[in-house]
Amino acid sequence: MKKSMLWLLMMSPIFAFAQGEWNQKFEQLGTTLPTANSYRNASGAPGKDYWQQRADYVIQAELNDENQSLSGSETITYFNNSPDQLSYLWLQLDQNMRSKNSDTPLVTESKVSSSMAGKSIQKITQGYDFDGGFKISEVTDASGRPLKYFINKTMMRIDLPKPLTSGENISFSVAWSYNMQDRMQLGGRSGYEYFPKDGNYLYTIAQWFPRMAVYDDLNGWQHKQFLGRGEFALEFGDYQVRLTVPADFVVASTGELKNADEVLSKVQKERLVQAKKSYDKPVLIVTEAEARKAESSKAKNKKTWEYHAKDVRDFALAASRKFIWDAQAVKLDTKTPLAMSYYPKEGNPLWEKESTKAVANTLLTYSKHTIEYPYPVAISVHSASIGMEYPMICFNYGRPNEDGSFTAMKRSNMIGVIIHEVGHNFFPMIINSDERQWAWMDEGLNSFVESLTEKEHYPNKRRKRGDPLLILDYMKGDKEGMRPIMTDPEQILQLGNNSYGKPAAALSILRETIMGPEMFDYAFKTYAERWAFKRPGPADFFRTMEDASAMDLDWFWKGWFYTTDHVDLSLSKVKWYKMDVSENEIENKGKKSKKTKISSGENSQNLIDFAEEAEVFSYINVEDVVETPRQKEFMNQVNDQAIKNANANRNFYELTFENKGGLVMPIIIEWTYEDGTKEREYLPAEIWKKNENLVTKVFAKDKKVINIVVDPNKETADVATENNVFPRIENTSRFDNFQDGGE
């Protein structure tokens, strides 16, 4: 009888070298990441010489409700905290993506299909008459003298009379105007929605003033053109903003209202005071009845609302006579911000019931996982077909039917978008990443914490992102339709999957499976605390997560963020062994095992199953295999008889795993024994270090195994589940009965 030879004690180096292609999946990211320096150190923290610029704004503007235009003037005070001398400044003119000479329609692909909606045809032909873009009327210095400027599409360069040296600041003014677009016709992150039944407008006002471009240690000037998808890179500063509107308008805004006596009635001010003490439910500041009254007759006179904000990177507003307004206090550890919502009657009853509650829940969970929310307010504004974020304020969809009815799905989607957009207060409004370059650093991180918020406050809500299972269809798709996460947003092919879903799923796997919640949460919070009100890059995130956890995660960043590989770990072969022991050699140890065929994927057709009896191996005493005195000196403490006794009736299972998808991941094994009990084992991803494609490992078990499942809880985003089980039955998926937490 042929026997397999296994020396249980040996670990000869010859067995450590694996065959197969080596793709350097475990090589360090050192040369890929920017070199650490005194601005950003190797731990992922800001260095001793870290700096960032600052821009303060004083703005006066007026919204014209007759022709849907906005005009204004601003004084910017720009602080050069860099070590460099600047001979010119760059400002962002984002509205220019709607100008006649915009590159956006030129670089947007279009195709003809067998049937086309009018809106699609209009987009192709540019068949609308809209005069968009900023009209810059003047640029002057602090003394009112004209400054030379040059406009290149969505960027404006101001040439300084003399260089701005390190430590200096400069004040200058810009006057402008632009026509606001109908979002229902032209789309966009801001603009207006028209309500034909009552003849009123709801304005969401953003990218509405020339804003300073970023100058930093990573890029110098970040002045990539704004084409519409890549979002924003901005400097922190203080704002004083006065917006003049029709007297019956209500204005929601970034910042704190400074002239409530001028714009609110006595009863509205009393309600606002009451809201600051209401922790369990919102208080209506402007009721639906009051909003209906305002929208029925248009005021001819005007009011100016004044808002101030400190340490924000942007400023946005919303304005309409249609607004209902409610507010509720949120108790954090040391702060009590107001969660607030503004919405037209068309949003009720859904918005009055759910919006402010969702804002409050978001602040609670995000404050726990990042930093305590530092601003005085967090606002959700309702308008159709939008989801967009700004400091302290966001614009969100989720409209009931005309009769006020709504489905569970409508409610779920509305809550989800509110959590997501309010969550953007943390990423990137506070942890101030460069959205123009790295969409995943705000969208992916935010989507991940969004999923934690939903699990905590809405456990039965259907989630769209964050769980590994939700990214499977994308991960197993055609690689031609993918780009790595580390891709400029203008080049990404599937923005939602690439920048939202995949990084959110990756971080969920990192938290739940690889690091564990306690270790992950500490490292993630460390990143947030280190980079709050600063400008992190990808390397700062990667390095901080490793620095605060003592885990080498370069393999994880490389696989998930720098490639389009997917997870497909296959349990491709299982062999069962027992020790060949004579009956009289070990007393009372049972009968000798017999040899049977090896059970493996290669030797079966429709069913891969365990053999009836195990393959046997012979035990070899130490003295029979050591060759030199030096080896005997090392091995002379081995008690061969004790080892035989301990393992005489044990089962040895040799498992072979294949990495078919490319992404190396931990191997999670669930064993089911003959007596019905189960056991789970976890092999770290580093098991693939010697061979990234094939791994074989032996497990010793006291009980007989009847079933083996890899990734039993579906936590690694493995796209092919049929090869994760043993015995294996064709055409069986463990995901057939998966339910994604519907309402």
UniProtKB/TrEMBL annotation:
The record's section on CDD domains has: M1_APN_like (cd09604)
| The keyword Signal belongs to this UniProt entry's keyword annotation | yes
Q: Which SUPFAM superfamilies match?
A: Metalloproteases ('zincins'), catalytic domain (SSF55486)
Sorted UniProt keywords: Signal
InterPro entries in UniProt: Peptidase_M1_dom, Peptidase_M4/M1_CTD_sf
Q: Does the keyword ATP-binding apply?
A: no
The signal peptide here is 1-18
Q: Which residues form the Peptidase M1 membrane alanine aminopeptidase domain?
A: 386-560
Q: Which GO terms describe its molecular function?
A: metallopeptidase activity; zinc ion binding
Record's protein name: Peptidase M1 membrane alanine aminopeptidase domain-containing protein
Question: What organism, scientifically named, is this protein from?
Answer: Reichenbachiella faecimaris
The organism's taxonomy opens as: Bacteria, Pseudomonadati, Bacteroidota, Cytophagia, Cytophagales
